[in-house]
Write a structure and sequence with these properties.
Distance between the termini: 114 Å
Largest sheet: 3 strands, mixed
Number of helices: 12
Number of strands: 6
Helix content: 40-55%
Strand content: 5-15%
Structural class: alpha+beta
Mean pLDDT: 84
Shape: globular
Length: 328
């Protein structure tokens, strides 16, 4: 019938329209959750850093995101040459890895930069507080000199970062509703291991781990005034960091002189001294930790007194590494 004919024609046209319609482009499928952009109340973080550090910023500081963040180090020139040699001798060319920071203070610009690519937002927030405290200390501290050895660089880093980690630990304890104040944390610094510090890994690496313990020891002795002592009379060796009792007593590591007969013998043999310095307890314990458990290696801090090394080269290409140390 004509009605049936019209119905069939309508169905044919509808089918043709459906077939001629452009197909939607394939949408790539992914199991990744959309990135959540962090939002930090930087003014509140600055206030918390000042409150917990018990000091206000002499000069305003800013906090900024950096999507090209790099955790830069200050071991350059002579320090870098010293580190390169000891890395070659003690670590087969592979230096110990310090945990990467999620934020850093830039003194020249008076700002704290945080890693905009990080996904551990808890860790970033804690790192910002730590760097704010370090920035505050940097504004009141005496000017620092370029470290001339790897050991001096580690000592300087421990002083600069120790108080920051101490303040960040107090901040974390408050956020976790723990009843921990500065005095209690200083009396029981191992309490840092009970805090959920995200993946900031503050308790790893010499500068953060031993720097925190050093700041805690100084706080026990004189509160924040004690901590600021190290900012204005900074330790120059890691021996003073791992033995804060010796630092506070003014008992500095001794110095060495190579025996005259050894010097004469090497000179007569055609050797010349290319490099000399100290290894120090921080690097020594890191090396020892390759062979024994870390807690056993760190027990060597107590007995270490001083050391000296030198690298000598011969015109025929031979070289000698001499290293002596004193223990009690």
């Amino acid at each position: 019938s004509s009605r049936m004919t019209r119905l069939l024609l309508a169905l044919i046209l509808l089918s043709a329209a459906c077939e001629s319609s452009p197909k939607p482009k394939d949408v790539p499928q992914t199991n990744e959750a959309p990135r959540v952009e962090p939002k930090f109340d930087t003014d509140a973080l600055i206030q918390q850093a000042e409150l917990l550090r018990d000091r206000e910023f002499p000069k305003p500081v800013t906090v900024e995101r950096d999507d090209a963040f790099e955790d830069q180090t200050g071991c350059e020139q002579q320090c870098a040459a010293d580190k390169a040699l000891l890395t070659k001798i003690l670590f087969a060319g592979k230096p110990p890895v310090e945990p990467a920071r999620l934020a850093r203070f830039v003194p020249a610009e008076n700002k704290v930069l945080w890693d905009g690519r990080a996904t551990d937002f808890v860790g970033v927030e804690i790192a910002i507080v730590a760097e704010l405290a370090s920035a505050l200390d940097g504004q009141v501290a005496a000017p620092t000199t370029e470290p001339q050895s790897w050991d001096a660089y580690l000592a300087q880093s421990a002083v600069q970062r120790g108080a920051g980690v101490f303040v960040a630990s107090l901040y974390t304890a408050r956020k976790q509703s723990r009843r921990v104040d500065a005095g209690r944390l200083a009396m029981r610094p191992e309490g840092i291991f009970e805090l959920q510090l995200g993946h900031a890994r503050f308790v790893d690496g010499f500068a953060t781990r031993e720097g925190f313990a050093f700041a805690a020891a100084l706080f026990r002795g004189g509160g924040w005034s004690g901590v600021e002592l190290a900012l204005n009379e900074p330790p120059t060796t890691t021996h003073e960091i791992v033995r804060p009792d010796r630092y506070l007593a003014g008992d500095r590591p001794g110095s060495w002189n190579w025996p005259a007969e050894v010097v004469a013998s090497r000179k007569a043999g055609g050797y010349t001294v290319e490099q000399s310095g100290i290894v120090g307890p921080a690097v020594f314990v890191e090396w020892l930790g390759q062979h024994v458990p870390n807690h056993v290696a760190r027990s060597a801090y107590v007995a270490f007194e001083s050391d000296i090394y030198r690298s000598l080269e011969h015109p025929d290409g031979h070289w000698v590494f001499e290293w002596v140390s004193l223990w009690k």
